[in-house]
Write a structure and sequence with these properties.
Blueprint: E1 2-4, E2 9-15, E3 28-30, E4 38-41, E5 47-50, H1 52-55, E6 66-68, E7 89-92, E8 96-108, H2 110-116, E9 122-128, E10 132-134, E11 138-141, H3 143-150, H4 154-164, H5 167-170, H6 174-191, E12 197-199, E13 208-210
Helix pairs in contact: 4-6
């Protein structure tokens, strides 16, 4: 047998599981560049923060300096779906966590490896616990993504986001995998959305909450949406 090392690979997504230091649902931004940060936890429970560009294979010239969004003047917000700047709506749904089990080795047959090299069939995969990424409860959206969310157009949203991703992430055989990952994430977003949405303003980066439109008085009772709790509006501290 021959052992071939591999990079970390995604394992599963679990909504609603406990996550260290995430009791505050306020998004975390970098005080240096004023952009959103991704939250990670190691198997030992150590929380770290990473710039989204680093997750896409890029680099930044400064370490993450995490602060709550509400404590940061003039944050550079982006749509959490297509990455367009200056989102106008915020939605609240169940928190999700992506567990990344680190693939430490893939075992192949020595003869198969001699004949086919890295195309050799994998006989056994060995993994070790990796990081866990928290997606958070709040999702900021631009007008175009918000329109798809309001119509619950899951596949339209997936197509829009996939088209906005860098080509290196969607080229060739990568596209089906990316679309499958987006489907898993956005399905939970759609199925757990809180009623209404928040209007993002400079004074209220978390959104001024707007309740869903009430049905007309003559609309049949069976067609009316069931009422639900609306998240409280959170304002920037003075």
């Amino acid at each position: 047998m021959i052992t071939i090392e591999r990079l970390p690979q995604p394992d599963t997504r679990t909504p609603g599981k406990a996550f260290p230091a995430m009791s505050d649902p306020t998004p975390v931004f970098c005080a240096t560049c004023r952009r959103a940060l991704n939250v990670h936890a190691s198997p030992a429970g150590r929380v770290s923060y990473v710039h989204p560009v680093e997750l896409r294979g890029g680099t930044v010239d400064h370490p993450a300096d995490p602060v709550p969004l509400t404590a940061l003047p003039n944050p550079l917000m982006e749509c959490d779906f297509c990455s367009r700047p200056d989102p106008v709506w915020t939605y609240v749904c169940a928190d999700q966590h992506t567990h990344l089990d680190r693939v430490t080795a893939r075992i192949v047959d020595a003869r198969d490896f001699r004949d086919r090299h890295h195309a050799a069939r994998v006989r056994r995969t060995e993994t070790a616990p990796g990081i866990t990424q928290a997606w958070g409860q709040r999702w900021a959206a631009c007008d175009d993504c918000a329109a798809l969310i309001e119509h619950r157009d899951l596949y339209g949203l997936i197509s829009r986001v996939a088209q906005a991703l860098p080509a290196k992430l969607t080229r060739g055989h990568r596209l089906p995998r990316v679309r499958a990952e987006l489907h898993a994430t956005y399905s939970v977003v759609f199925s757990t959305l809180a009623p209404g949405r928040g209007r993002i303003t400079a004074e209220h980066p978390l959104g001024v909450w707007q309740a869903p439109q009430q049905p007309a008085a003559d609309e049949p009772e069976a067609h009316r949406a069931a009422p639900g709790p609306s998240p409280a509006t959170q304002e920037r501290p003075s």
